[in-house]
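Rotation project, supervised by the postdoc (A.L.). Task for the rotation student: set up a whole-complex structure prediction and record inputs and outputs verbatim in this book. Inputs entered:
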Amino acid sequence: MDNHVVLTMRGISMTFPGVKALDNVDFTLRKGEIHALMGENGAGKSTLIKCLTGINAFETGEIHVEGIEGPVVNHSTLDAQKKGISTVYQEVNLCPNLSVAENLFIGREPKTKLGTIDWKTMVKKSEAIMADLDMNIDVTQNLEEYSLALQQMIAIARAVDMECKVLILDEPTSSLDDNEVEKLFRLMNQLKAKGVGIVFVTHFLEQVYAVCDRITVLRNGQLVGEYPIDALPRVKLVAAMMGKDFDDLASIKSDESPVFSDEDLLIDAKGLSHKGTIKPFDLEIHKGEVVGLTGLLGSGRSELARVIYGADRNQTGTLKVNGKEAKINAPIDAMNLGMGLLPDDRKAEGIIGDLSVRENIILALQAKRGMFRLLPMKEQIELADKYIDMLQIKTASRETLIRQLSGGNQQKVILGRWLATDPDFLILDEPTRGIDIGTKTEIQKLVLKLAKEGKSIIFISSEIEEMLRTCTKMAVLRDGAKVGEITESLTQETVMKAIAGGGTNE
Amino acid sequence: MNKLKKITGMALFLPIFCMVLVMAVNIFYDIASGNFAFNFFTISIRNGVLYGRLIDILNRGSEIAILAVGMTLVVSASAGTDISVGSVMSLAASFCCMLLAGYGVSSTNDLAVPLLVGVLGGILMGCLCGAFNGFLVAYLNVQPMVATLILFSAARAIGLLLCNNLIVYVRNDSFKFFGGYTGFMPTPIIIAAICVIIMMVLLKKTALGLYIQSVGINKKASRIAGLNSAKIIFVCYVVCGLAAGIAGIVGASRISSADSNNIGLNYELDAILAVALGGNSLGGGKFNLAGSIIGAYTIQAITTTLYALGVSSDVAPVYKAIIVLIIVTIQAPPFKAYMKRMSAKRALAKGGAAA
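Outputs recorded:
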């Protein structure tokens, strides 16, 4: 084995029921490099990583790790950790009901002489770790008290502290805002200088070019190739991932901006609020309008939408839907008024993991019809097939359990679930998070198509460019309050300024 | 080989396999003791009613089967068990007998109220208990084990209070019907069959099954998708109470009395075991009602078999525990994975030898 190489995977193959997930894939990681693993949804990125960390058992192939004789087969993440391979997954895999310190040291708690857990040392060490990453938080609080972004950072802190040779970051940035991404990159570069090999899986092309040294591209479970970063400009990377040339994303939006009259007013919210998450706000949405909610993570953009939908109960003000006052106590009330919500936390609030793709697609429609009007199986199958086809969901069959699908495909299933209810008003909270670039465009196109059909949409995304392409109006949120709306001259600059706050010129 | 795989892969394979195992023991026993090999399966008519070990199992297993119907839903929706069903059976029986005999009467030959009023009263009491449990679990978020512990310890005593601390005897032929015979068929078998069939039809013809499983797997996501998660969990507990009420009436009718200390004693454990033997995860989510029902009769088959083998009722629980241990081990995922690895190894060895 080459001196610089810390990890080699050769000829890895693995099959899921009905799908060849990996087909003879090679991967090489060198010391002190940041290596991007790229590919569309279902290309096999997560599967490859899970083979490495022992979550999936691969069928053929060999893994070699520097300093260990012979081929390595890990049977669990713990196994992998002992061999110096640490992982931070796309969705936070820590225990929300334990404290931050406990999460950092779970399985390797410092012990006193008596063999009991040394809480004092644990807290002190935890504080030191977090301070190292510029995060001054109370480590004795339960993990669930913190935002998803902070949880993600804590997960990374845990992995980093375990003296790893190989650090795998599987979509670590999808729930982080720019500031936090910046912090993470600084951290990655520090580790790189120490000689750690980092595998970086992400869908954000800019981030790849910001930190990575090398790119390995997968497509449909097969290796496309390994390239130094300079040899693969952005367009070529996209082409490699998709297996075809790619028409520019920017071209999808038409220039004409539609004009809305008061008669078309669908949602008229006045002074809605939910204590502790969002202060009273007004919002008007017309038929066929795409309204973007923008702001930093935790600014209240998701929370605003949740109050309208009744996921969090509204406590003040009035909501008019189609001119009529609406009382929404639970999501089903909102659904009966033609609404739908694609939540940002897919794992916790989106998928029903142990049910099939078909059942997940028809669930909302069935809930709307009520218990006693079961959708005939024939219709269920038709609906499932229709959305699998329309959204190009990669699944072995419509009866496959949704948890066996890759993250992006799960997202598409949930999207299908709402489209099946034929909503008038759809709230999409981070619909493109963790989704590959080709599908991203598809979803953006879909949003515009729905708007053209007269449906109203709230679009929430961390990517401003994406919203600029789809939205006709943007509402800006800061610190749990709606602080303004931008309707004209929607550009990256104006939006960024609005998010950052008016402090600069005043 | 492929066909075999298909059969062993079926959801109900293991519950049925376990049932067959228990029956095989019976056949061996009959052969060994020089009886007709299929003695176990022989059904004859004596004194105008069906007779035989198989009938006995179906008859005696009725209460557990009825309870298993409710328990399956509760386990699926709330990822917890209702440990109060045995006590609730006893309370329902006491209330029913109290109504039929009149308060404070310890023995009666004539009914104080129409039979239907007493029986429905008892069943309603079961529903009420279920609603109480359901309210605690679904709306106050009390853990199922803790919530149902309240009635587990209190329901029997309440029943005794209702009966003025007496064992109430209802010596009336019309009341004996529920634990007796309809024509040549034991009535409990018919009652259990009706309960199971009604639930199967409900699951098949309505979205109840989808709702319950969805809530059991992911409560939050189900709510966002428009389900009233709390209400669905509540309903499951009410159904479980209803089942306990019906089982209680059958139990009381068998002995023509409301014996608070004995009716439904330890039945909650059998009901939970039935659900587990049926291949259902006690962690909630997906469920298979047919599996639970087969599980219920398997438990009864074990008990009956042990008695047939001459094991005394005092030590029978020991053998029962051993059999249950074996069955649970066979169904455990690590064991299944181990078997799969072993068979793969064998196949490999065979392939290697051929090459």
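Student's summary: The domain at 5-248 of chain A is CATH 3.40.50.300 (Rossmann fold).
Supervisor addendum: Residues 246-252 of chain A have pLDDT under 50 and may be disordered.
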